[in-house]
Amino acid sequence: MSTLKQRLWESDDPFMAWLRDERGLSATTLYHYNTYYKEIKKLNDFNQKTLQVLIQNKKNNSIVRSTVSLFIEWLKTQEIIIEFEMPPQPTGRKKTRIIKSYTPAQINAVREVCYKRKNGYGIMFDLLYYGALRRAEIQTIKYNSFNWEGYLNNPDKHCECKVEGKGKKERNVLIPANVMRIILQHLLNLKIINPNMDVPYIQNLLSNNNKPLFNNIYEWKVWKIINSASQEVLGIPMRPHELRHCRATELQDMGVNLRDIQHYLGHANTQITEIYLHTTEKTSLRNIRGVIDNE
Question: What is the pLDDT of residues 89-102, one digit of tens each?
Answer without folding.
Answer: 876 665 556 668 88
